[in-house]
Amino acid sequence: MSQLITYSVYHSYQEIAPFNFETDSVFLSKTYFEALEKSAPKNMKCHFILLFQNQKVEGVALAQFLDLNHLASFGERDKCLKSLVRNFVFKNFSSHVLFIGNNMLSGQNAFWVSPTINKSQAITHIKNACLDIIAHYKKAGIKIHITTFKDFEKEELTYFTDSYFLDNYCFSTQPNMQFSILENWTTENDYVMALSKKYRDQYKRSRKKCDEVVKKKMHLHDIVQHQKKMYELYYYVAKNAPLNTFFLKENHFEILKKQLHDSFLVYGYFLNNELIGFNTLIKNGAIMETYFLGYDDRFQKEKMLYLNMLYDMVGYSIKKGFSKIIFGRTALEIKSSVGAEPTEMFGFIKHSNKIINYFMPKLFPYFDPKVSWTKRSPFK
Q: Domain residues for 125?
């Protein structure tokens, strides 16, 4: 006989601090939840869902409320009529969004459950918790316009059996670029030798372009010292993205380093002692997760800075014995050129307005900017 599963919703980290639980993902751990709450963008509020069995925590889920009214820009790359219409609709009809999942990451970071719990049953409880959060905001005079569950691989869709999802639109976003590290690779040179001549030449050319740039591992005092410049570099990249639903706080990286310690890595790129770029990584078990980065566009093309960052991420992850790198869903073609493969991701979205929700299959592809790109095959 299966044991009764219950759930509770918590609206702050302090409420879940007394509970003991361990998950197989750093992004669904207490340490990360504390870091996330302290460093979350100004327009984001986090909620935590715990599933209980025999009074023991056997499942965890993350919800994020975003108020898009607080954004000055949704992204400045595409200056066209389509973007103007999209921005108007977001501001007026879709400004309050509730995510089940982590809108700051790519991949399935929405929930974790122990092997003792059926995942379909768990998702039903998480759905009920989602409805409770919507009611929580309604009580405060805030209407949730859009609810979305993200990001899931195709085989995970079989767990969404609850009738609630029947009138949700199942969407597919840009693929999550994942780089698999072969077991016989122990050094960056092993990776380079596995490349075809064309892509070995690309590697050598990019490395030569970046000869004068000094790469440095940044510790907490370095992050604090260069915080303002780091934010400028991050903001330049972020505002030129096709779509934004948040912007980080200026001290975001400082807070994450204080909370995650050695699990959070920051690397700065310096030219003549001036910070011209940086990238961040988060260790997640055997998987390396790429995080936010920034660069000075004056040097990006000349020094092939972004491509060199990708190669550095690959080299470090091989050296340290990681099995995979999650590169996320931006700059698809250049990530493909270093060996990352696309994994299609899916989600469920529902609008509170029944008429808008009915037309969601037509509206979503219009407002979600699709990027055409060519898949590369860099290996022999």
A: 5-173+345-367
